[in-house]
Amino acid sequence: MAIAFHGELYIPKSSWIHRWAVRPKLVSLLALLFAFAMVRHVVLLPWMLGCVALLYGLAQLPLGYLLHRLSYPGLFIIAMVVALPFVAGETAIAQWGWFTLRQEGLAAATLVSGRFLAIVITGFILLGTTPFLDILKALRSLGLPPLLADMTLLTYRYLYDVAAQLATMQQAMRLRCYGRVRQRTRRRWRWLAALFGTLLLRSYERSQRVYQAMCLRGYGQMPSRSQHFSVAADPVITPIATGLTGIITLAFILAEWRLSTP
Amino acid sequence: MHIPDGILPAQVCVGGYAIAGGVTWYVLRRIRQVSNPTEEIPKAAMLAAAFFIGSSINIPVPPVSIHLVLNGPLGVVLGWYAWPAILIGLFLQAVLIGHGGLTTLGVNAVMMGIPALIGFQVFKLRHQVGKGWSMTQSVGVFAFLAGAIALGLAALIFFGLIVFTIPAELNVLEERSALTALMIAHIPLMFIEGIFTLMLALFLLRVKPNLLDNPG
Q1: In this structure, what CATH number is given to the domain that contains residue B95?
Q2: Which residues contact B90 (CB under 8 A, 6 or more apart)?
Q3: Which of A37, A109, B87, B201 has the most CB atoms around it within 10 Å of its CB?
Q4: Phi, psi of A61 (to 5 degrees)
Q5: Does the structure show a pLDDT above 90 at B8?
Q6: Contact B163, A87 (CB under 8 A)
Q7: Residues of B with CB below 8 A from A112's CB?
Q8: Is this model's pTM higher than 0.80 or not?
Q9: Residue of A nearest to B40 (CA)
Q10: Which H or E run contains A241?
Q11: Quick one: pLDDT at residue B173?
């Protein structure tokens, strides 16, 4: 599991998309994501992918960023859609022994892959042009409950520490011959349960210290509602970008509705 | 066991968000009734981080190794906080790893979180059903059941959604037999998840028993 670090998630630039105010950007791009998820006609795929390519170009994000971030979910979707052309549908296109390639299955796999690419890349555009903490602040100002916002911030803050701690503990286990000599599966499971239990225990003990430190800094005494975003929004770009994205979202919803009605 | 973006129709994704929103409202209400959230947030957040990272541990099941889902243990250790922990864990997995998705966040939360809450309720049954048993027996049996049931329910929701919403051209009989076959294939995994939850619960009972006492 390769967790992206903050520097790998956000690419600082001064593109139009970077200067788009966080709250309208979040709402607009999420609406666009759902409009893409609504698409059920293959004919809309090129338009959808064209829009995403245009947005990606406007965001000035490097191609390497996309390829690097796409590798893991890309492998997952390939594994999921590879069987579809062989199991779904009735119209046979080609046959190799027991395997029959079917037209309806192939269309469904193309649709799923296209939708997946469009949604995932739009998500990358949002994450690559907006600092993660700004996204959380925007979510908070849009009504995310304080408990969820605080828990997300703390989980994100300590995720990398816990990962480092687990790596250290696993190294210590290997130094004590775990996995190097033949051991019964039951014994190895017991080691792993103790490893995970110890990780929980250390995290729990640390949380007590973190809570005391937070209390000393006034946590829970007054509501914290910082509206300051780390990237300044452009007052000209924001309405234009929000309006255009709104029009594109509506266009996809209407096109899908038009194609679905006989 | 996450559904990625693009797989499910938008109506299902929106439905997932609606159910997740309702469950979040109910769970936050319960949390405020049974505990002091300000005090519990750091504990729940740190344990959520530990579960997030812990799910990457490889469990040897010769000749292969697998990753555990851990929604049962989350219910056992975090109680009501398992829901926000899963919601946040799925959000961070989608953002930081690209596992799961933003449009399917609600559906994935329902798929993993509701079974975790049911696992929590099953684990709490030890106070009533396991009254005459020793502590080790009652914790062990109900931790096993919580882990196995939570994974079984998550797998049922996962395969139900995949089989009934994607390939529209599969007929009802094929869909039913595919779902049955996939669920039978998951019975050994339910057993493994249950055993791991049992071992974890017994370890915590030995070294930090108060981690298993969640107010309900």
Answers
A1: 1.10.1760.20
A2: B2, B100, B105, B108, B109, B112
A3: B201
A4: -85, 140
A5: no
A6: no
A7: 6-7, 166
A8: yes
A9: A211
A10: helix A237-260
A11: 67
